[in-house]
Each structure stands twice: as C-alpha cells, then as structure tokens.
Amino acid sequence: MRQPLVVGNWKMQGSLAGVEALLGDLVSATPAAGVEVVVCPTYVHLAQAVSLCRFSSLTLGAQDCSHVQSGAYTGEVSPAMLAEIGCRWVILGHSERRQYQGESDVLIAAKLMSAAEAGLRPIVCVGETREQREAGAAQAVVSTQLEEALKGRANLAQLVLAYEPVWAIGTGLTATPEQAQQMHAFMRVCLADIANVDSAATRILYGGSVKPDNAAQLFAQPDIDGALVGGAALVAADFLAIINAAAA
Ligand code: 13P
User: Fold this and answer.
1) Which residue in 6, 61, 96, 218 has the fewest CB atoms around it within 10 Å?
2) CB-CB neighbours of 131 under 10 Å
3) Ligand 1: does its nearest atom lie under 6 Å from the Cβ of 165?
C-alpha cells in the first residue's frame, strides 16, 4: 500500500514570524493518522523550520538543490548541506524553475542524482502547459520529462513523482479528478517502462490548485497518492483540511 503524502510548497513566501506562526499551528494540530506530511519553506527558513518541527511528525523539504555537493557555484545550495541541517526531501523540476530559471530535463536529472547521493528524497515534478494540452500533447510532454529525468538512473527507491499541470498552478483551475487520474495512471505505466523502480509502490502526487473543497475527490482516485500544495499550504486550516482529506 502507498502511504498518502501531502507536501506543502511555500514557494518564495514567508518571514521568520510567519514561519513560526504557521508551523506552530501545524505542529499543535493532532496529526492525521497514516498521512505523511512534508513542508518546504525557502532555504533561509529551513533551519528554523527544522528546529520548530523537531518534536513533531512533520518533516522538511527544500524547493530545489544544486546538481553538485560543493564547489564554486555562487548562489547554489547543495543537497549535502540540506541533509546536514535536517532537511529530508527536495522538490525538483518544478515548472516555475523550468520556466523562470530555464531548468532543463538534463539539469533536473543531474540534480536528482546528486539529491539521492546525499540521501534526500526527491519529488520530481512534471506537467504540460495549456497550449500543450490543447494540442493533444500532454502525455507526450509528461513521458518525455519522465524519461529524460529517470531513464537509466539507479538509487530511485525513494522517488516520489508529482503531476502538476502548468495551467492549473495558482490559477484556481484544477484538473478534474478524471483528467488527473488518467495522467497518473499513464505516469505509472511510463515509470514501469523507463525506470528501475517498483512503479506500483511509487507515490504520485497531484499539484495545481488543490484546496480543501477539491482534495477529497482527487484523493479518491486510485493512482493519486497525495498532493503537492501551493497556496493552500500557507493557511494552516486549509492545509490541515487537505491532510485530513488524505487520511479519510
Ligand atoms: P497552487 O496549489 O498554488 O496551485 O500551487 C501548486 C504548486 O505549484 C505546488 O508545487
């Protein structure tokens, strides 16, 4: 059985006081049984967040990492550094990084290897744009992204995938449960084909305007194993409601 996983991606948001307040609310809530919960603040808030969560079941993730462990890479943060401060997860290949930082599938594959080497659990994001979906190319785009990132890689036992259709991120437009299920099932087939992993045991998250009022329908789909939540993860009551929907 795949344990439900709910991940909050805070993106470039938060402040010392805000992180303390939000994590305070999350940590003091009764944890939903059986759901794994991860929060991904900015790099600068990670150490503070690790400390605030040390007696809770919440674990921390980063939103990105370097493709190498150390060296002359100004502005980068290595997976080894993240692991050392108590960060356990890392989001890789988020569409905002593909779009604004020009991240390629090749770079994402290198980051994946370097994250695995440091013992971080990778959450690899894939997803098509609206234009690609309208052109009937959604599956082709997603399978190429998966193949470029995963083909021939070892060390993928901890891998988590996230399907995040770009047109659904921050737009309030969610993929319907049927659209999401169809893509998740397709991704599971691709995964079995291209990577040396147990695809039936690999968790695939949905991301893109997940809210308390649509989470349950998404989680009811057989191949949706949880969510990668943006905006709603910044409001404790909303994030907790999504976690509870994953437990139901
Ligand atoms: P929203 O939930 O704000 O649409 O963001 C989704 C996302 O990008 C999570 O990584």
Assistant:
1) 96
2) 10
3) no
